[in-house]
Amino acid sequence: MNELIDQSPLCLNAHNFTGSWRRDYFGEALTPIGGFTNCDTNTLASLGNPWFRFTGDAGTRLLDSCPATTGSCGTHGAIWSDERVPTPISLVKKITVYSSWVGGCKDTQYSMFVMRCSSNDVIYKFNSTAPCNIGFCSMY
What we know:
Number of strands: 9
Protein name: GP2
Order of helices and strands: HEHEEEEEEEE
Strand order of the largest sheet: 7-6-5-4-8
Number of domains: 1
Strand content: 25-35%
Mean pLDDT: 87
Low-confidence stretches: none
């Protein structure tokens, strides 16, 4: 049986986040290579705010629970969501994501879009204006 795969430009042209420091390591407060704090809002803005995915050492999807501590996932304000990814291929869903900062797990909320390109490939589009230093947490 062949797997359904969305061949749309959204899936084919999504930006790849690959850094292993994006995965939540139970509060170990990992930083990107070079020791700088990650700012995904600036990175995505410089690329024209594309759809993005987690792949390789970064894992496969957005973290689905609150990171253990401020500084997780290579940033000060780690973005995560407890909303489910749509099951159907190509269905775009608006979700709420949260920044876990000094104030707690749901310190600030933002909106994003999520779409499944295949059973193992999910892409996201950040739909909000946010300050640095926030970044997206991932998991397998």
